[in-house]
Amino acid sequence: MEIIKASLTDYKTIYNIAIPVWDATYKTILTQEQMDYMLKLFYSEEAFTEQVSVKGHQFLLAVEGTEYLGFASYEVNYQSETTKLHKLYVLPQAHGKGVGKALVTVVENAARKNINDKLLLNVNRYNPAVHFYLKAGFENKGEDDVDIGNGYLMEDYLMVKQL
Known about the structure:
Layout (H helix, E strand, L loop, with lengths): L1 E4 L5 H16 L5 H12 L1 H9 L4 E7 L2 E9 L6 E9 L8 H15 L4 E7 L4 H7 L3 E11 L2 E11 L1
Parallel strand pairs: 4-5
Antiparallel strand pairs: 1-2, 2-3, 3-4, 5-7, 6-7
Helix pairs in contact: 2-3
């Protein structure tokens, strides 16, 4: 498996990973209407372009041979000496292969290179991935409800990992 840096030209690949991951993860947590709203908000081509070109998010892809297994996005110096892990998605069929761990390791190394001393992320409180993050060394620092418009809230845990 290899972790590579993604670019704007990788939009379709990232989108094609996000859709099945969202379906598997959120179909029992969110309504279909909220999922559709959030996918458009965060995964439209326009939103992706803004994340990369304006907000400075870095995207990574995990690839094995010709098969893409997952992706991550992060932002160094998010809050002073903090790197924010914005997204980490691994296809269900690739769970247990070390994909998530490999992506987190690359983000940790980028954070250290930029003299950031911690990673920060939000994860839905009902997402089974909470256990992955705890095992990876993140600590639950409390709840964070984020109003994303249209009457929807992201009901998350705020998680931090000291580097």
